[in-house]
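Quarterly update, task 2.4: 6-O-phosphono-alpha-D-fructofuranose-bound model.
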Amino acid sequence: MKTQFEEGTTLDRFIYETTRAHPEATGQFSTLLRQISLAARMVSARVNRAGLAGMLGGTGTINVQGEFVQKLDIYANNTFKAALEHPGVCCAVASEEDEEPFYIQSPYRSGRYVFCMDPLDGSSNIDVNATIGTIFGVFRRKSEEGTLATEADVLRPGRDMVAAGYIVYGSGTVLVLSTGDGVHGFTLDPGIGEFFLSHRDIKLAPSAKTYSTNEGYWSLWSQELRDYVTTLKAPGAGYGARYIGSLVADFHRNLIKGGLFFYPATTKNPEGKLRLMYEAFPLAFLVEAAGGAATDGHTPILDLTLTELHQRTPLFIGNRDNVAAATKALSGS
Ligand code: P6P
């Protein structure tokens, strides 16, 4: 029987009810979700005080992506890693901020799950108070629990992902999560530090009339993509454009209101800019669970396999028919 969650359900109750439906559950997955919630609340509190707590601005360092690291990036990265290390439910944490995976070892137990994350996506927007967020995905390890995890546990096909979500730190803090059975959103009540169900069973309509991309790269796009976008802008096509420049915020708007987001391959970034493991895979997991689709312009994102930790990919994601139309246009057919 599908558990119906009424408004006012806390995230904790959602976790309890969801895992209760799986008698074989050992409690590791519940603990993992609770630790994600804890880290999310800690990062939310810090992001919302950043201006006051001297957390704005850069650290003066550059990360493995060659991106200028903001103080909040480091705080978010360390906070999620610390929350996931000691409970013994994770064996590895792969982060946009770290060149190599963080393999959990003694004195902590090497647990069942591999956690991948962009700890603070859109961080270039921090100093202008635009919405930023954490994107994460979860795999079940392949190697034996209790042993040191290996690269084979981390470099996985997208279809191996068992859960994914994100937290947007905006006008409110919203955690959106799927464990494979629907997509649900929880809004933080900062007064009591609890997430409450606010977006039950998010579903995307087959199509939408919004597109979201950085058109400043027009001259770097393929001719097929320019021709496609021209049809969206044609008189009477009825499309609107929205672009924040923070993937997690652009995706969240489109998940709630509908829309096609794309960050394509360009002559400057032939592999695209966005990362496969901890941006495209989690968002593709969510969008498919909500009835949408995600491709790299040709192949469903979740059909791809990670071969390099920080591998990049073009990304077309959103309502099913919009993604299909864009993908068809890129094929030149
Ligand atoms: P551009 C933010 O830096 C980010 O990684 C994503 O969050 C966002 O979608 C993209 O880059 C924006 O890139 O080239 O449009 O500034």
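Highlight for this quarter: The pocket of 6-O-phosphono-alpha-D-fructofuranose is lined by residues 121-122, 124, 214, 245-247, 263, 273 (CB under 6 Å).
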